[in-house]
From TrEMBL, chains A, B:
Belongs to the DSD1 family. This is Amino acid deaminase. Signal peptide: none annotated. InterPro entries: Ala_racemase_N, D-amino_acid_metab_enzyme, D-ser_dehydrat-like_dom, D-ser_dehydrat-like_sf, PLP-binding_barrel. It comes from the Bacteria. Keywords: Lyase. GO terms for molecular function: lyase activity. Residues 310-409 form the D-serine dehydratase-like domain.
């Protein structure tokens, strides 16, 4: 099987976490180098994507959303990788979700022509970036609105340019993040939209259910979203055909699929889910979510397999200053640390046959910019120069630490590389 | 005065936090665009460096270290900016400090020919990167050692290549990070070094005092470092002339200067301090440090002025969903959040004359990947589309969120830009 998955950008391969080469390489050259993590061909720390797990997750989510008859617009903010965006689009994604105007441009440059900016679009320069994309007649772009002020700003910007931006009314929750809180706010937004039909098109309704504190709260805001959507749809307020309804971060996408499935059969409606972390998954917040999903969601149960952690970090033991402590050359510059520290998965001593499972009691207890503190047993055989492979929690804040990630096979040989464009 | 400070790389200007242009720009083009933050020419969020404050801080540290007769090798891991490295070198820096081999390469590419890698050098690929730099006869590079295993690995790698790497013995503290803990560990390292005189040169002694819990602890480890240095120096164990002694992160550089001043007058000794955050300073951990410094350090008191916060973030209010809450389009993707959240400094409503001071009670209470939650008063006049300028805490973890930072004058007009190479 050809493991060179990606259409590459022309980005030079430069910086940390790549193989050492006597000549200047582009990112497309990585696949031909034969670099092996275990042979120490790569400067550690390095971030790697497990090829098989990545493809498994891609297919898992394709089947899951297909089973519910819903569309997928993966949140691109997670990876911000043109190569991964293309992979997701080739795998049938309806579009790419982003959080900002510069991210929208990156998604467009990677080939997305349906872009869901799951955020308010604010500021002239950000609107100018979006305007540039909208001038391409083949591009649909939707942003969120939750205030008349923002609708007026969008209308005032796009009308003089004879452009029309799609918007989704964002449903919020009291104490939550963005989004309208009550009927009065809905009406105020709808009233302002009526002033700008040529410049701001209400295409549907959106919610980010992740602000709710628990499953009951998640279901409540989703049901409220369905109700609001149906009211607007039946009132003819949604100008796009089919009308859009969108929800789902990476933790509750199954519940969103369930709750929105009442709308999914209607040809006049497109249900769009937008998880971002499924592609790499993790062993922290999203593994916890997957456990809940497999315990409760019938489609996931029927599919048997689950998402697999595909993003790992390799690093060296750099110091063993005290018996129960190892200092690892891996820091806040390399890994997310806001939702649990990296978790040792494998231990490899260069020159030995193969990695072995890391001891279950090895645990990172603190991280600095460029170091991690690993608690180990006083008698454990862990030496300076040994390599550790870590699983991670929170892919988003790990991806943004890397300009390149290496794609590896099961033997941790580099078969490809991807770039990020944060 | 010419505000174009920098020798630029050829990096394309792409991504977030830059001005909108119809044509593809390189980073060297930014100065000619006349972009104004206040006129909304720039996509927010954006990271800006205040030109005058940057130059002030540069000069302040030059004078401070000169007063103590010590050298400066600014820690490059903070900014990882070739433009800023060159500025520091032009301002008289002895060299550039880094934390990893890829960072060492970036420092070298930016022009540094004395590179202090204030970390252990581990792994074949990392050693290969360093070997490439050492083949330039005009380059001196020093890394840290704290174990015989690491010394043996360095010797085994560099001897066959007929290269010699400089090393500093790292002094550690019980319960701390890296570094030797006791005389037995010192002797073990020295004994191993004796096996590799041609390949591993003991050039001096290093300490990172920031692992100590308080000033008494900091002074104790510094004094222990001086004693160890003197013993090794007098024993003829330090092969470089002048011998090196180095300490100082960004919080205790004054105390390091004081404690190491007993060595600074000796022409056979080079004292090298390596703070990294002084160049941009902050309003969090390093402002706290500056307060202590000005209360206790006679040189700093005599200099009168203090370091100034030079790194700021501009962002939009994107939603005002509840009376006491504003949602800001600024997240963990844009700012450090591990040592205090960004602090509102200025409030600007596009179209008005000038920014005003942000209300003192406005406070970020939480951050998500792309959003910040700002507590405001129920009656405060803060609208969707308003701009806020934030000071930050922890420059290191802010810089690494940006591939470009704009340099601005006091009116927040863009006068230049810098790149980062994380």
């Amino acid at each position: 099987m050809d493991k060179k998955l990606f259409q590459h950008t022309s980005a030079p391969l430069r910086g940390k976490g790549i193989g050492v080469s006597a000549t200047a390489l582009g990112i497309a050259d990585a696949s031909a180098q034969g670099w092996s993590i275990l042979h120490e061909d790569v400067s550690l720390p390095a971030a790697v994507l497990r090829h098989e797990a990545l493809l498994h997750n891609l297919e898992w989510m394709r089947r899951f959303t297909a089973a519910y008859g819903v569309h997928l617009a993966p949140h691109g903010k997670t990876t911000m990788s043109p190569e991964l965006f293309r992979l997701q689009l080739q795998s049938g994604a309806w579009g790419i979700t982003v959080a900002t105007a510069p991210q929208a441009r990156e998604a467009w440059l990677a080939g997305a022509r349906r872009i869901l900016m799951a955020n308010q679009l604010v500021g002239k320069a950000n609107m100018a970036i979006v305007a540039e994309l909208l001038r391409d007649a083949g591009t649909e772009l939707f942003c969120l609105v939750d205030s008349p002020d923002n609708v007026a700003a969008l209308g005032g910007y796009f009308r003089p340019q004879a452009l029309r931006v799609g918007v989704l009314l964002e449903i919020g929750a009291a104490g939550g993040r963005t989004g309208v809180r009550d009927a009065a706010q809905v009406h105020a937004v709808i009233a302002e939209l009526a002033r700008w039909p040529d410049a701001v098109q209400l295409a549907g309704v959106e919610v980010y259910e992740g602000v709710a504190p628990d499953e009951a709260g998640v279901r409540a805001i989703l049901q409220h979203t369905v109700t609001t959507f149906q009211q607007l749809h039946q009132a003819g307020a949604l100008a796009r055909r089919p009308a859009l309804v969108s929800g789902a971060g990476s933790a509750w996408f199954d519940v969103v699929a369930e709750e929105f499935s009442v709308l999914a059969g209607d040809p006049g409606i497109e249900v769009v889910l937008r998880p971002g972390c499924y592609l790499t998954h993790d062993v922290g917040i999203y593994r916890d979510a997957a456990k809940r999903i497999h315990a409760s969601n019938p489609v996931a149960r029927q599919m048997g397999s689950s998402l697999q952690p595909a993003l790992q970090l390799w690093a060296y033991v750099q110091s063993r200053p005290e018996p129960g402590k190892a200092i690892i050359a891996l820091g806040k510059r390399d890994a997310a640390f806001d939702a649990g520290f990296p978790v040792p998965a494998l231990h490899y001593r260069p020159g030995t046959a193969a990695p072995v499972a890391a001891a279950g009691h090895w645990k990172i207890t603190a991280m600095m910019d460029q170091h991690a503190f690993l608690d180990v047993g006083d008698q454990d055989d862990l030496r300076v120069g040994d390599m550790l492979c870590f699983d991670i929690s929170h892919p988003c804040l790990t991806f943004d630490k890397w300009r390149h990630l290496l794609v590896v096979d099961d033997a941790y040989t580099v078969v490809d590389a991807i770039s990020t464009q944060f």
